[in-house]
Amino acid sequence: MDLREIFALNLRRLRRAKGLSQDDLAADAEISRSYLSQLERGSFHVSIKIIGKLADVLDAEPEEFLKRSRGARK
């Protein structure tokens, strides 16, 4: 699993845990919903700036987006 996939899985998990829709998270993070959707699918590389915005809105530490789940394959 590459880092884009790991990021995408963690982004979806964190967003859902906060009970936010893609529209709500995108608006709060000041990014387009289309871009957020593509990040959640692992289609785009994400910048540090966007990780920071998403972490702020989701009240998460930036490293949470890159953590592998215990059962994930390398």
List the helices and strands and how they pair.
Blueprint: H1 3-17, H2 22-29, H3 33-40, H4 48-58
The largest β sheet comes out as: none
What is the CATH architecture descriptor?
Orthogonal Bundle
Stretches with pLDDT under 50, minimum 5 residues: none
By CATH, the topology is: 434 Repressor (Amino-terminal Domain)
| Class per helix and strand makeup | mainly alpha
Q: For this structure, what is the CATH homologous superfamily?
A: lambda repressor-like DNA-binding domains
User: What percentage of residues falls in helices of 4 or more residues?
Assistant: 55-70%
Task: Jot down its keywords.
mainly alpha; 74 residues; 434 Repressor (Amino-terminal Domain)
Task: Explain the overall architecture.
There is one protein chain. The chain is mainly α and 74 residues long. The chain has a single domain, classed as Orthogonal Bundle (434 Repressor (Amino-terminal Domain)), CATH 1.10.260.40. Helix content is 57%, strand content 0%. The protein has 4 helices and no strands. The longest helix is centred in the first third of the chain and has 15 residues. The chain starts with a helix and ends in a 16-residue tail after the last helix.
